[in-house]
Specification:
heterodimer; A: 9-stranded mixed sheet; two-stranded antiparallel sheet; about 30% strand; B: alpha/beta; Rossmann fold; globular; binds flavin-adenine dinucleotide; binds adenosine monophosphate
């Protein structure tokens, strides 16, 4: 079984982002980066599938040269090799999906594990777009994955409860947070990852035009809420809710 | 090509309220494009939903009534929506940013060679259509434009009022997308969390509990407070991860987005990812033992108190008022 897993380099979700004064983007100086949280769950699941069924795990990232760090992390966790499609451009999910379409045509994986959304751009589009371009089935927001007999049975987290879907492979699965516990990269894992193959390509090498379909024109901070009051006790809270906020 | 197509969402044979918010978004958009608002309903014997959709003063209601649409599958729904977009000359195709909308719309966008905006909170015309959307867990709002002729939009429904019925009924047209069902995807089951309480995204009051509650049993007091006010129950991710609450209750960047009249954050610290899902609420009450908890930075009313004492007392006193 050949498993492809995607890894995006994103700003650390625990840091507060700052917007540039000219509203053209966010401040990148002094910012920490890490692997997109949802992709950690995707990489873990890819490795777990390989451990059960045998095969190979290939990690792919599209982004700046520094993304080799996140790819090495994926290899330290257990991915066998990695591909970086290097670009400094800001990509929309559609460009990501078009680049991945080319990678899939080269690699011909049986299953692709991705994150359910990037925690920086919060779009949740790339996997579904890719599935559509490949005319493959998809199972998004997975909390449970069973692979057997050329099919994947996937438990999905959906509004109102959970849902189960079967997709015939090749197919695409996106990871939700309760899918598994991503393993930490062990020290021997980290050492081994340094020697694992990492191929670097460019969108040009793949013949993909990465011009976005969605242009971002302006970045702004949301309206901040003002901190309210700390009240004395429950009686005061009840009184304010009734007589000030008029919500009771 | 200036029309706006709304993809309706339904559950248990009833229209989901989130669709009515999308109709409001669609009206805003159609006013700018100079087109009409049309609605597409996919389902199997959901005539009551079609009748309801006819009440909102839209131009056309297309109803694809087919057993192939009895259960939602992106692989079957997306090509049908693309066909409807062509049938209605849609410039914009929109649906709620629900889990269904998120799963479905990118596939529609790919079929229509359209760019897609996720979680739109506004649409305007300023030298072409512009949309605003939150990202980075709500810490940034961007203004974006879509360069393709057709634009696909998932709508953050908490930012739009639910459309009200307008009087004249639109005739319901039956629509055959002419698409063969997928052979590579199968629906197996939907396990609905049944509840007497209102849906989280629709509720006027939401009472949410966090990791500080320390157990699932202790969530009872959250439910009691919610029931006193006819509200819904929510949770932080830490509470869900700890197994105190079902995943369907999670509020935040990666859970649901709510904007009720009144939100109670009980034993929730107020991480940015949680705030992303609730800071649009009209009134926020925070109950936390830690006076420095970040939740107090966004709350209108704060109580530095032990939830185990304050919540039962609050429930009792509110119950007396309500009775
Ligand atoms: C990529 C990513 C996505 C995420 N998405 C979400 C999301 O969608 N939603 C979400 O909620 N989180 C999300 N998180 C997690 C988030 O960062 C926080 O970890 C989480 O919100 C913390 O939950 P909490 O406030 O319940 O727990 P804690 O931070 O542990 O806070 C518990 C609080 O309870 C208080 N407390 C303790 N005992 C009592 C008592 N007896 N009475 C009153 N107060 C008490 C404490 O003072 C403390 O403030 C995400 C994180 C990441 C990295
Ligand atoms: N630049 C990228 N490189 C690698 N994977 C990506 C990239 N952008 C998005 N993805 C993958 O697609 C998923 C969804 O991304 P998005 O559509 O941006 O929310 C992410 O969780 C990643 O797995």
């Amino acid at each position: 079984m050949k498993i492809l897993t995607t890894v995006k380099r994103v700003t650390d979700p625990d840091m507060k982002v700052k917007i540039k004064p000219d509203q053209s983007g966010v401040v990148t100086e002094g910012v920490e980066y890490k692997m997109n949280s949802f992709d950690e769950y995707g990489v873990e699941e890819a490795i777990a599938i390989k451990e059960e069924h045998g095969g190979e795990v290939v990690a792919v990232s599209i982004g700046p040269s520094q993304s080799t760090k996140e790819l090495r992390t994926a290899m330290a966790m257990g991915a066998d090799r990695a591909i970086l499609v290097e670009t400094d451009a800001d990509l929309d999910s559609d460009a990501v999906a078009r680049v991945l379409t080319e990678i899939v045509q080269r690699e011909e994986p049986d299953v692709i594990l991705m994150g359910k959304q990037s925690v920086d751009s919060d779009r949740s589009q790339a996997a579904q777009l890719l599935a559509s371009y490949l005319d493959w089935p998809q199972a998004t927001f997975a909390y449970d994955v069973e692979v057997a007999d050329g099919w994947a049975t996937v438990g999905r987290e959906v509004d109102g409860g959970t849902s189960t879907k079967r997709i015939r492979l090749p197919g695409i699965i996106t990871a939700d947070l309760r899918l598994n516990e991503p393993r930490y990269a062990s020290l021997p894992g980290i050492m081994k990852a340094k020697r694992k193959p990492l191929e670097t390509l460019t969108p040009d090498d793949l013949g993909v035009d990465i011009a976005p379909r969605v242009n971002v024109l302006k970045f702004e901070a949301p309206e901040e809420r003002e901190a309210g009051e700390i009240l004395e006790d429950v009686d005061e809270l009840v009184d304010r809710l009734k007589n000030e906020a008029n919500v009771i | 090509m200036a029309n706006v197509l709304v993809v309706a969402e339904h559950l248990d044979g009833a229209l989901r309220k989130v669709t009515r918010s999308v109709i409001t978004f669609a009206r805003d958009a159609a006013e700018l494009t100079g087109g009409d608002v049309d609605v597409l309903l996919l389902g199997s014997d959901v005539d009551a939903v079609a009748e309801e959709l006819a009440q909102y003063g839209v131009s056309r209601v297309l109803y694809a009534n087919d057993s192939a649409y009895a259960n939602y599958l992106a692989e079957n729904y997306a090509p049908a929506i693309a066909a409807a977009a062509e049938e209605t000359d849609a410039a914009i195709v929109c649906a709620p940013a629900s889990t269904t909308g998120k799963d479905l719309l990118p596939r529609v966008a790919a079929s229509l060679e359209a760019g897609m905006v996720s979680d739109a909170i506004s649409v305007s015309d300023d030298d072409g259509l512009k949309f605003r959307r939150p990202l980075w867990a709500g810490n940034v709002i961007t203004t974006v434009e879509v360069v393709t002729p057709v634009k696909v939009v998932s709508v953050r429904t908490t930012d739009f009022d639910a459309a009200e019925p307008s009087g004249d009924a639109t005739p319901v047209e039956s629509f055959d997308p002419g698409v063969a069902p997928s052979e590579t995807a199968e629906f197996v089951s939907f396990d609905q969390v049944k509840s007497e309480r209102p849906e989280l995204t629709d509720a006027e009051v939401v009472v949410a509990g966090g990791r500080g509650l320390r157990s699932g049993e202790n969530f009872e007091m959250i439910m009691d407070l919610a029931d006193t006010l006819g509200g819904a129950v929510g949770a932080s991710r830490a509470a869900v991860d700890s197994g105190y609450a079902p995943n369907d209750w999670q509020i935040g960047q990666t859970g649901k987005v709510v904007a009720p009249q009144l939100y109670f954050a009980v034993a929730i610290s107020g991480a940015i990812q949680h705030l992303a899902g609730m800071k649009g609420s009209q009134n926020i009450v925070a109950i936390n033992t830690d006076p420095d908890a970040p939740i107090f930075q966004v709350s209108d009313y704060g109580l530095v108190a032990d939830a185990f004492e304050a919540v039962p007392e609050l429930t009792e006193k509110l119950q007396k008022l309500v009775d």
